[in-house]
Hints:
The chain has about 210 residues and is mostly helical.
Amino acid sequence: MWKRNGLSIALLLLLIASLLGQIWSGFLTHNDELGEAHRPLLDLWSYLHSGHFVSATFENWESEFLQMGMYVLLTVSLRQKGSAESRPMSEDEEQDRIEEGQTPWPVRKGGVWKMLYGHSLAIAFAALFVVSFCLHLAGSWRNEVDESVSKGLPAPTVVEHLFSSSFWFESFQNWQSEFLAVLSLVVLTIFLRQKDSPQSKALAAPHSQTGD
């Protein structure tokens, strides 16, 4: 099981550990802020439903799904000479690597099922982005309402918050960092190598070689 699924298991464990760390540190931080404002403190379960936690969590998930979705779509038609993260410059250099096994049923079915399956990765990332964006908006709005009420100010509607600079600041500060990370990976793989990594070209490969 570990040999076949080790990468997914390790990443899942890292995700769980990081999420638990975020929950606990966010819980302590938010209660410190509430205490300084002389407001009632939250228990852990209440914190998990608070705008503070929901907004912080899905604000980041939203940017991750945007990053990966855009990367999947952009690499369909765009190239970067020398990058291991790019398709080869010429379609003649590309070869579909298909191992022996049962072909997925949408491919066998053909028609609209094959068409949808052919774009299913981008569709999935788009759906995950939309869901995360909506949950980020809901959590950020609830957090903004709580802060407004604590200051004796009128609470904004969700539509007002959607068009506020504070909400888009939360989004753009994460989006730009995600695109920076992908840009770094694309460019650095032109010149740098990591032995045995599928994200890297072979050690002896020339800088001009495009693709893994």
